Amino acid sequence: MTLEEILNLATVIPVLTVEDDARAGDLARALHAGGLKVVELTLRTPAALKAMHAMQDAAPDLVVGMGTIRTPDQARRATEEGAHFLVSPGLTPGLGEALAKTGIPALPGVATASEAMAAREQGFCALKFFPAEPAGGIAYLKALHGPLPDLVFCPTGGIGRETAPAYFALPNVACVGGSWIATGAMIEAGDWDAVTANARAAAQLK
Ligand code: 3PG
């Protein structure tokens, strides 16, 4: 799947941190039932890669990206394990090279105009704006559109269901990421009805 296809399918991208891969299948089904088609699973727990496989098995239509990619090795490993796309919180020249080499779509993280321009130089036109709220939020992204009209962003970090609609109103926002759809506590509690309800509300925001 191309990056463009993924961004077209994505509305809110739930950012998921899974401690226990035994919960991943139910989580995937709950998100899918709510109408979300693209998710980011963070590489922050020992269970992350197993959880990715479990999610892909449980909901074959779900596009499962691996997030929190910080090193070239992690980019390679997540790709070998079958991630559908990669997301990073920031970007270094080495990581950019590794992301490009994987051959799968990537959303590298940036927080400033200079970082966005450096990412563009490395060939990335769709970027994660992270951490969105602390880095300047809606006003900052709006200001980037004038000088950098060829870039689109997936703002993530500190965004919730109340603030997401204002991001979607910007011309340079392709999707919005956030952990509020399925928080760690909801996943741990197996509160799948709440996850589906949040997913359903989020799916209608774009
Ligand atoms: C991320 O990794 O993208 C963030 O931790 C998600 O940010 P949020 O928890 O503020 O939504």
TrEMBL record:
Q: Which reaction does it catalyse?
A: 2-dehydro-3-deoxy-6-phospho-D-gluconate = D-glyceraldehyde 3-phosphate + pyruvate
Q: Return the InterPro entries for the record.
A: Aldlse_KDPG_KHG, Aldolase_TIM, KDPG/KHG_AS_1, KDPG/KHG_AS_2
**Signal sequence, renumbered to the chain:** none
Keyword Lyase set for record = yes
Pathway assigned to this chain's UniProt record: Carbohydrate acid metabolism; 2-dehydro-3-deoxy-D-gluconate degradation; D-glyceraldehyde 3-phosphate and pyruvate from 2-dehydro-3-deoxy-D-gluconate: step 2/2
**Catalytic activity, EC:** 4.1.2.14
The protein's UniProt keywords, in alphabetical order, are: Carbohydrate metabolism, Lyase, Schiff base
From which domain of life does this come? Bacteria
Which GO molecular-function terms appear in the entry?
A: 2-dehydro-3-deoxy-phosphogluconate aldolase activity
Does Transferase appear among the keywords? no
Entry-linked CDD domains: KDPG_aldolase (cd00452)
Q: What class of enzyme is it?
A: lyase
Name the protein family: Belongs to the KHG/KDPG aldolase family.
- Subunit note: Homotrimer.
What is the protein name given in its UniProt record? 2-dehydro-3-deoxy-phosphogluconate aldolase
Q: Which organism is it from?
A: Marinicauda algicola
Gene expressing this chain: eda
